[in-house]
Design a protein that fits this description.
By secondary structure, this protein is α+β, with helices and mostly antiparallel strands. The chain is 18% helix and 46% strand. It is built from three helices and eleven strands. Strands 1, 2, 3, 4, 5, 6, 7, 8, 9, 10 and 11 form an eleven-stranded mixed β-sheet that branches. A hairpin with an 8-residue loop joins β3 and β4 (64-72). The longest helix is centred in the middle third of the chain and has 15 residues, at 92-106.
Length: 179
């Protein structure tokens, strides 16, 4: 890859945030192309210590998500950041509890994993769960943050347990919400 293929830090204009990760300027479009081609693309970027941005074309300024994928040897890692308007009638704890119920239906919630987190001077709640993907298990850290402008749901998943070879959770904690 050329130096121009590296982008340090991702700014989501529609999601109004910045995350300090190194990613490739080449993106994969969600749902287009053969899976084999997509994984070769991700592998090539991962070999250069870069995350691959998965582009979803129907994001709006009100609702959407950004997704990044990376491989570490044979293991898969993903970051997903979803945004929406702040909930009108739910406080942070109620919102987190509702999201936790949903995740318990998808996989195995790690009991007593709920904890407080602060990102860019905004309070949030986090927890962990495991999701069975058939031949693999994804281990996920799950975070809900309310800012005055948005609700963010951030998820970091990795197939090799709750390890974090790229210090991804430290980078997530350094997200800056643009106002």
């Amino acid at each position: 890859m050329q130096t121009g293929d590296l982008q340090t830090g991702f700014t989501s204009q529609k999601g109004n945030y910045y995350i300090p990760i190194d990613y490739s300027t080449e993106a994969v479009i969600a749902g287009i192309g053969a899976d084999q081609q997509m994984w070769e693309f991700i592998q090539r970027h991962s070999d250069n210590n870069l995350w691959t941005y998965v582009l979803k074309s129907n994001n709006t300024s009100e609702l959407g998500w950004d997704k990044f994928t990376r491989k570490f040897d044979s293991e898969l890692a993903q970051i997903q950041i979803m945004w929406s308007p702040p909930p009108r009638y739910l406080n942070l704890k109620q919102d987190f509890d509702n999201a936790t119920k949903f995740h318990k239906e998808l996989g195995d919630w790690i009991n007593d994993s709920e904890s407080k987190i602060e990102i860019d001077n905004n309070n949030g709640l986090s927890g962990r769960f495991k999701l069975n993907l058939g031949d693999r298990i994804m281990y996920s850290a799950f975070i809900i943050i309310h800012t005055p402008q948005r609700r963010y749901q951030i998820q970091y998943s990795y197939t090799q347990g709750f390890s974090d070879p790229d210090n991804t959770l430290k980078k997530i904690k350094k997200i800056k919400f643009l106002r």
